[in-house]
């Protein structure tokens, strides 16, 4: 612009001064991220020689136990240090008994992973939905999930994971009292050192659709609204988080992430433990689908979405884009 056609304004405060170049922008960032805060979810299935792409989650795979070590090495090489394991068993029954079997799919995956890639940190999802013939997250009484009858099953499953090598257990069932039941069982068996990451604030969400295909965990009847939270409620999330902390949770989680940034913020302001957020399958698949059609810049959206979760107050991010985010952090694109 011709300098003779306007006058410089007499402004003392000019926010643009701190946006002049990349060095100053990074210096003054309010939200900072680290690769150590990323957790990568993985699906392990029975069989051998299996690395099968999940149709509704392009770029994510089912791995058989023999194929898992190579996949874990990729995670480690990407700079991600923690994984969250989900198992897909070949046998289901009314109470999900294969969830705590010594030769269960997660138990076998843990032993193989710990042997092949011992430097990773292994977290296991503790729930019954993948293991029950009806697809609900606990034992049934008629067509209702029996909360109290489910607690010993969850505790037994958590203990079996720890005995197989889990470094942390993460109950996702949303039964009342399950953290206390798991903590008591672990402590009574001498595993006082094992932390619990509670899916404390888990909503009944439509964003879980691709995961239910991936984990073969859709309920055969009804829905999960009697135990997962109503998405209209935010204050209830604080109550759930505080209850789980009182029961012994060392960390709490909000799930999903992107549609619940306000909840992440509220919870993070109310608790004195680390807060994780789970960017779920539907969030991943929407970004992936739009990017595959050329509608968005995938890398830019990944970075922006992840930053919003940390900015809202999350300390830890569970995401199917963990490997990519670690790369972008290394490159200085975010973080």
Observed structural traits:
single chain; 335 residues; alpha/beta; two-stranded antiparallel ribbon; 11 helices; 12 strands; 18% strand; globular
Please provide a written account of the structure.
A hairpin with a 2-residue loop joins strand 2 (51-54) and strand 3. Helix content is 37%, strand content 18%. The protein has helices spanning 22-27, 68-78, 105-116, 147-164, 178-188, 209-214, 235-247, 261-270, 281-292, 298-312, 322-331, and strands at 38-45, 51-54, 57-64, 82-88, 121-126, 140-141, 144-145, 168-171, 197-202, 251-255, 275-279, 316-319. With 335 residues, it is an alpha/beta fold. Strands 1, 2, 3, 4, 5, 8, 9, 10, 11 and 12 form a 10-stranded mixed beta sheet that branches. Strands 6-7 form a two-stranded antiparallel ribbon.
Shape descriptor:
globular
What is the end-to-end distance? 35 Å
How do the helices and strands follow one another from N- to C-terminus? HEEEHEHEEEHEHEHHEHEHHEH
Quick check: average pLDDT?
A: 92
Count of DSSP H/I helices: 11
Number of strands: 12
Strand content: 15-25%
Major sheet details: 10 strands, mixed
Rg, nearest Å: 22 Å
Amount of helix: 25-40%
Low-confidence stretches: none
Please identify the structural class as seen in this structure: alpha/beta
Summarize the structure.
With 335 residues, the chain is α/β, with parallel strands linked by helices. The chain is 37% helix and 18% strand. Strand 6 and strand 7 form a beta hairpin.
């Amino acid at each position: 612009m011709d300098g003779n056609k306007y006058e410089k304004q007499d402004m003392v405060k000019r926010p643009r001064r701190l946006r002049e170049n990349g060095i100053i922008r990074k210096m003054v960032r309010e939200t900072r991220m680290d690769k150590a805060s990323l957790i990568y979810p993985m699906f392990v299935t029975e069989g051998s020689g299996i690395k099968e792409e999940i149709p509704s989650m392009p770029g994510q795979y089912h791995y058989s136990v023999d194929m898992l070590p190579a996949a874990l090495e990729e995670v480690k090489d990407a700079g991600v240090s923690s994984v969250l394991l989900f198992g897909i068993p070949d046998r289901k029954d009314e109470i999900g008994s294969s969830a705590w079997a010594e030769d269960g799919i997660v138990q076998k995956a843990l032993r193989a992973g710990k042997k092949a890639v011992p430097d990773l940190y292994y977290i296991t999802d503790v729930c019954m939905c993948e293991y029950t013939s009806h697809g609900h997250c606990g034992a049934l009484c008629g067509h209702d999930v029996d909360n109290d009858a489910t607690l010993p099953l969850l505790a037994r499953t958590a203990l079996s994971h720890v005995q197989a090598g889990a470094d942390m257990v993460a109950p996702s069932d949303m039964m009342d009292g399950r953290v206390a039941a798991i903590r008591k069982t672990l402590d009574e068996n001498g595993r006082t050192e094992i932390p619990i990451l509670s899916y404390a604030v888990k909503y009944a969400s439509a964003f879980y659709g691709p995961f239910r295909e991936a984990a073969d965990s859709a309920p055969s009847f009804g829905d999960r609204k009697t135990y997962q939270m109503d998405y209209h409620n935010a204050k209830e999330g604080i109550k759930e988080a505080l209850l789980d902390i009182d029961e012994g949770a060392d960390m709490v989680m909000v799930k999903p992430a992107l549609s619940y940034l306000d909840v992440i913020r509220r919870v993070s302001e109310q608790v004195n433990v680390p807060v994780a957020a789970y960017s779920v399958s539907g969030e991943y698949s929407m970004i992936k689908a739009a990017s595959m059609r050329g509608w968005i810049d995938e890398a830019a959206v990944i970075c922006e979405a992840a930053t919003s979760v940390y900015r809202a107050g999350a300390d830890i991010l569970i995401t199917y884009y963990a490997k990519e985010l670690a790369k972008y952090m290394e490159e200085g694109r975010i973080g």
